Amino acid sequence: MARVALVTGGTRGIGAAISIALKEAGYSPVATFSGNEEKANAFGKEHDIPVYKWDVGDYDACKEGIARVEADIGPVDVLVNNAGVTQDAMFHKMTPEQWSTVMGVNLTGFFNMIHPVWPGMRERGFGRIVNISSINGQKGQMGQANYAAAKAGAIGLTKSLAQEGAAKGITVNVVAPGYIGTEMVRAVPQEVLDKRILPYIPVGRLGEPEEIARCVVFLAADEAGFITGSTFTANGGQYMA
Ligand code: CAA
């Protein structure tokens, strides 16, 4: 039977490309979303991928949602923590709410999703967790103290869980995308994008969501059991960690 692969934020942007690529690779993907129900349902219908709505920032909602997925479809063998938000502001203008919203979704959200699936993966002796971090968690970014802190935190979380999961057949890895042509990047002021970001990408363009999905499919494979605790960068050469 196809392995169930749960992708958070899996109906839009990079997450949508990941859900589709996992399906093409023979998985049974499930995509979560938290926003526009109509668009998410349309995505699910178009690609024949089940979609579920919950907020990854809410631990009880994650626990309950995962239990529903497992009852409806089967145990989650692959978890892709992709859901993330930005609330960019220079630090002197950043509000406590902007800090806690981003930490709550982008870092605590990873805990909230991993914690409920971890015992089952340990029992079954198999699991693949791929945490989507960011180039900005590796190098820091003006205007993103909250986002960069959460994305760097995801790398520490990954390295710790990689050690805990290794003896149980669970791998935990990071994919760190650079600037990808999604709504999130298009929200960056055009002048900043043109003058401060694009010129520093040696490949000379934004990345495509499918280029990140390729990395996830690679790390999710049964054959990828020796790769754990790694940070897989895909950033067009903008930052070489
Ligand atoms: N790199 C270098 N300098 C930057 C910069 C950047 N990315 N962003 C802003 N600056 C500079 C501005 O050019 C400006 O400099 P000058 O005063 O010399 O003109 C100064 O910083 C202040 O900028 P603003 O006047 O624009 O200040 P603001 O308060 O209006 O807005 C901001 C600040 C919200 C940070 C806005 O500039 C911004 O959104 N910047 C982009 C931040 C960014 O890169 N976000 C990534 C989003 S995509 C993502 O997160 C996905 C991923 O994983 C990669």
Automatic annotation (TrEMBL):
Alphabetical GO biological process terms: monocarboxylic acid metabolic process; poly-hydroxybutyrate biosynthetic process
Record's keyword annotation contains Oxidoreductase: yes
Matching SUPFAM superfamilies: NAD(P)-binding Rossmann-fold domains (SSF51735)
Enzyme Commission code: 1.1.1.36
Cross-referenced Gene3D superfamilies: NAD(P)-binding Rossmann-like Domain
Domain of life: Bacteria
Residues covered by the Ketoreductase domain: 3-178
GO molecular function: acetoacetyl-CoA reductase activity
CC annotations in GO: cytoplasm
Keywords per UniProt: Oxidoreductase
SMART domains from the UniProt entry: PKS_KR
InterPro entries referenced in this protein's UniProt entry, alphabetically: Acetoacetyl-CoA_reductase, KR_dom, NAD(P)-bd_dom_sf, Sc_DH/Rdtase_CS, SDR, SDR_fam
Recorded family membership: Belongs to the short-chain dehydrogenases/reductases (SDR) family.
Name of the protein in question: Acetoacetyl-CoA reductase
Protein species of origin: Pararhizobium mangrovi
